[in-house]
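Team,

Forwarding the record for the chain on the shared tracking sheet. I've put the sequence and predicted structure together so nobody has to dig through attachments.
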Amino acid sequence: MTKKCLYCRREISDESVIDFCESCGKKVWGDRMFNTIITKMESSRENGDI
């Protein structure tokens, strides 16, 4: 099963820690906040929190 972006329905990697593509994420939150979200989500996954 392939994940799709919540906003544009573009296919995204099953390994992605978020449910939206990079393009939509940056449009919604901007570069800086998007990168912070990715960093925090990846850290949480590594810690087993999600």
